[in-house]
Design brief:
binds manganese (II) ion; transferase; elongated; binds uridine-5'-diphosphate-glucose; alpha/beta; 11 strands; 20 helices; eight-stranded mixed sheet; Spore Coat Polysaccharide Biosynthesis Protein SpsA, Chain A; glycosyltransferase; 577 residues; membrane; golgi apparatus; Cellulose synthase-like protein E1
Amino acid sequence: MVGICLIWFYRLKNIIPRTTGYHDDHDHDDHQPAEGRRWAWIGMFMAEVGFGLYWVITQSVRWSFIRFYPLKDGLSNRYENMLPGMDIFVCTADPIMEPPTLVINTVLSAMSYNYPPEKLSVYVSDDGGSEFTFYALLEASLFSKHWIPFCKRFNIEPRAPEAYFSQHYSSVQDNKFAQEWLAFKKLYEDMKNRIETVIKLGKVPQETRKRHKGFSEWNLNIKKNDHQSIVQILIDGRDTTAVDNEGSRLPTLVYMAREKRPNWPHNFKAGAINALIRVSSEITNAPFILNLDCDMHSNNADTIREILCFFMDEKKGDEVAFVQSPQSFKNVTKNDIYGSAFYVTQELEFAGMGGYGATPYCGTGCFHRRESLSGKKYSKGHRVQWNIEAKKNEGKSVNDLEESLKVLTSCSYEKDTQWGKEMGLVYGFSVEDAVTGLVIQCRGWKSVYYNPERKAFVGVAPTTLEVCLVQNKRWSEGLYQIFLSKYCPFIYGHGRIKLGAQMGYSIYLLWAPISLPVLFYVIVPSLCLLKGVALFPQIPYPYIYGPVSVFHFLVFYFLWALSCCTIARITNEEYGS
Ligand SMILES: O=c1ccn([C@@H]2O[C@H](COP(=O)(O)OP(=O)(O)O[C@H]3O[C@H](CO)[C@@H](O)[C@H](O)[C@H]3O)[C@@H](O)[C@H]2O)c(=O)[nH]1
Ligand SMILES: [Mn+2]
């Protein structure tokens, strides 16, 4: 801080004075360069003020680091017979960008958690309204009857078939396992081929359509942005005869494509999740919800049990609204050229925000308490009845239930309601997750950051510059939009969340404006160097040693904190985006 002030002081003190037409410096031949120099200095000063203040807010998350180690065996010992229900939401939006096989890999990994299947439900929201995705899910529902027992019998990881079979098992000792491994690989690949053939064909063949009544929804010509509500319960978890090939119950599996009409706003992913909240509340109404993007599969079959330790903790559990896990990517290269791994953010800063109970919600890999997600305020001492299951539609047939759910997913349902404002995910921002997390925390709830050694979820990061830039632009814009809106953490969060948390949020919300000083700093000093304009002091000034050594200290601190990755990776991450 002292170093920063000294830099400001130096800059202000030595700022080149406005030229008055009469000047005695050696540059007396013309007027312009002196004026240009003056502006370069003022620009440098402003950039340094920006950096300095930004540095101050980044400190908030560096002194409150917190890490958790849940003891899941304790949970099983105490609560095994009264474990709460878990609804898992998987969002997909486009069958081309997000191929149906990718979606079912996420779905299958979610269905095979080490958790009582009758308490587990997977809901897929398909904003693409694609019959290919529906067909793939139908295939997955049949495949799961073999896959889930296989996973549990051999306790394999990860439980997304594609990721699992891409690992090599050249040294398989156990002959029986080796045989099954090969047989299952073939079973999976056959299914994948069937799905891909249908997609190449461009339509689901007539014989296949006969296999499920749900295909009749696509009898009319459906467009991605213009179609009726579709809700299909592929596996009805209430049905005790819905069992896998070893006789164990299966988790519920539901396909949903909410109604889309050209003149109605659909609010992107936030709209999809809000529709899922309503649909699931009528079917299973589990007290906890896991939210996954379709490109992020489970990487640890025990995660649900670990996460429940936070929610069910006797002392602090009741105030926890959500537990966020980092987004880990399996396709990040050694130097991570597009800086998509967000190493510093995920390893350091989110854990720092966790110290204030204010880790942000990141849109995927997040477990929510249904109550807090639905708009409820935290009230101290209120014990949640998490082991009460939904009984409201117990007697209803699948068909009746599906019909009644269509109303909840229609375009007009949310009109004049609190959905998107006080209830569910917040609308109007391209980063619905960050603003929703902030709003939940401002209602008195806490969040937990859980970053285990073995990553809970693994996904794919963008691989092309174009996709990366679009994503970064959307994030920076959306985050800055929050800062400028009524949800600005310093105003909306004032008195509701800790100052450190307000500052922590601002690190991200100010990504967009901080790019201006960065841009200035990379362009102008180089130009000044070419023009021979001095911007920095010459070493003989004694007071410059202070700032210089502080700067070096910071650089070393930073490198030390990140000592496990390459220097190129750090520079790519910090300056690449
Ligand atoms: O209209 C839409 C648009 C997107 N999605 C789904 O939302 C998820 C995220 O969208 P994507 O286009 O992949 O955005 P990313 O930039 O990769 O997503 C990051 O940033 C988003 C906004 O902050 C978060 O919601 C995500 O969880 C986070 O992974 C995907 O599963 C999509 O299928 C929908 O369901 N409906
Ligand atoms: Mn994505």
